[in-house]
Amino acid sequence: MAERIIQDFGYNSETKNSIVYTAVKLFALKGFNAVGTRDIAKAVGMNIASIYYYYESKEALLEDILDNVEKGYIHYYEWLINESKRAESLEEYLDVLFNKELLDMAAPLVCLGISLAIKEQHSNAHAKKLVVELFTEYSIESIKSGFDALVERGIIKPFETRVLATLLSFGALGINDLRLHEFVDGVSPVDHIELYKSIKEHILATYQ
Hints:
By secondary structure, this protein is mainly alpha-helical. It is built from ten helices and no strands.
């Protein structure tokens, strides 16, 4: 697999972008407490003073990462809600849901940040809030709204939309965590594209 290009996270400094990318990768893989500032500096290829130029502490770096993950996640679901209103079939809505996830949400910061937040939810209040309020409640309601719109318009038969939305939301989080190694070493233990196709086929056969 070709080497993944370091994503520009929106900072006006290539160095800061590299710090954030490296930190979220290490935090997600090993856990926040297991990674020191020196580990990040060494992985980026700079001295530790350069890290402290941008962040006063490792905790401040974590908070910045979580802030960015939150913004990126909300941006995706706002897009999803708007696009779901335009869907003219269940298959089209599922394509909106899955394809956007595969293309835009493949961003390392968000995918790795989700894994990081799940790992740190018991020791970090911000991470816990993301998991409970954003990754769970907000995600379920957003996905549910797309199914509800199709039911209300008579495009598909009525069903327990919250149940399916819940299964998809938690399934996406699980698949995201399996993809962790794809962003770390280029190898994923799951073919998420084929898995999404299987899920889509099952939903179409069950709910149309």
